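Format notes (please read before filing issues)

Several people have asked whether sequences and structure tokens are stored in separate files. They are not. Every record keeps both together, in the order shown below: the sequence lines, then the token lines. Line labels are part of the format and must not be stripped during preprocessing.
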Amino acid sequence: MFKSLKLGLIFALIASTFSSGLFASGSHKQAEHKKKEEKTFHVKGTQKVCPIRKEKVDSDSFVDYKGQRIYFCCSGCDKKFLKDTEKYFKEMKVRGEVAESIQTICPVSGDELEDHDSSVTLAGRKIYFCCKRCVKSFKKDKEKYLLKMGHKKPNAHKAKAHDHSSHEH
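Then the structure lines:
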């Protein structure tokens, strides 16, 4: 009886050790991530003016691009923005503006973001990561990971139509 009790305790101890992760593999997710309660992430930006017309933005006119929401003064400006995004992000940086973040996935690991503790600020935007290890990888090859973020077609939301006779896009 004592022998079976000892074997049962040993088995329980071994099972407990494996389930607690002491012998878990060194995978990226297990080694550096703690499971947190599920949240919706949305980090408000500081953008106040349209990157194209330099007029006050309309909250109903925006484009979602590479995890960022960029606002415009009216519909039509989004098309010009999408033709030269880096130019307009750099101009936003000069004005001290940062786009609103709607990013939900780490561009390096592909894991869902659990918080916004790890980030890099680029011209006019902030890129978020699941951990500091991914930040280091991103810094070594920014272009690779920025391209990875750009595979989705941008979602454009148009403001109510207005008279464009006073300006061009």
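For reference, the curators noted about this record: The longest helix spans residues 2-20. The two ends are 86 Å apart (CA to CA).
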